[in-house]
Structures are given as C-alpha cells and as structure tokens.
Amino acid sequence: MDIPEKYKQLWSDWDIRVLILLSLFVQIILIFLGRLRKTSTSIWIRMLIWSSYLLADWVADFVLGQLSNAMDDSSSSNAIIAFWAPFLILHLGGPDTITAYSMEDNELWARHLLGLIYELIVAFYVLFRSLPNTHLLAPTILIFLVAIIKYVERS
C-alpha cells in the first residue's frame, strides 16, 4: 500500500510543528501527572506517566534531528527553526515534578551527560546554520543557557 502524495506533502510541511507540539504535550502530561507516579494506584495513570517519561526524550531527540535536516542556506525561516532548538533542549531537561521515573534512573547520570553533549552538538549545529539570520539570536542564546542549566540539573 502506497501513501498518497498529498499526505506525504502534508507531512513534509507540518512534521516539525506536529512533533514540537507532541513534545510539548508530553511535557504537560509529565508536569501535571508526574507527582502521581508514586501515589496513584491506577495502572492507567502509571502507564501514561511511564510512557510519557520514555517518549519525552525520544521525541525531543527526533525533532532535533528533523530541525538539523530542515536547515537550508536559502531559507529565511532558519532563524525560527533555530529558535526551537533550545526549547527542545529545555524539554530534555524535563519538568521538576519528575526528574527520574525510578531510583535506578538516577544512576544513569553518565548516559544523560553523554546525551547532553550529543544534543548540544546538534542544537549548536542548527544555531550555526541559522547565523546569517540574526533576528532571534539574543533570545535563542538566552534560552540555550537556561536549557543547558536545566539539563545539567537533571543529569
């Protein structure tokens, strides 16, 4: 079964926007339900929190990859694309209500630190590719600093 061309074009136009909204939605779930992971007896709430916790990192990683692929030298929207990169690093830092799903996750700080280095390389690549468009450079750098601090706190 082949996907019709109009759906391929629709996804090509909206993929980054939809994935950023998905990342934001997962963060909202973790913010509001994260503190219930230890007290809730409902299996559905615990499964939702656990799957959101696992999905949060994957979606942010994937969107950063999509952002790096979307950068082209001729586009005037590169500044907007680069503006989303620090928000995704901020999402990788996670909400304060759930920094780790279990105590074993806290022992994986070296993996999180390696992930931070990799994600920062990709995010700086996206920022570097957008440098001719400096309209949003100052707010992007400020959000980068906050995002790095947030991610280091998680690690």
Automatic annotation (TrEMBL):
The keyword Transmembrane helix applies. Pfam families: DUF4220 (PF13968). The chain crosses the membrane at residues 16-36, 43-60, 80-101, 108-128, 134-152. Residues 50-154 form the DUF4220 domain. Keywords: Membrane, Transmembrane, Transmembrane helix. This is DUF4220 domain-containing protein. It comes from Dendrobium nobile.
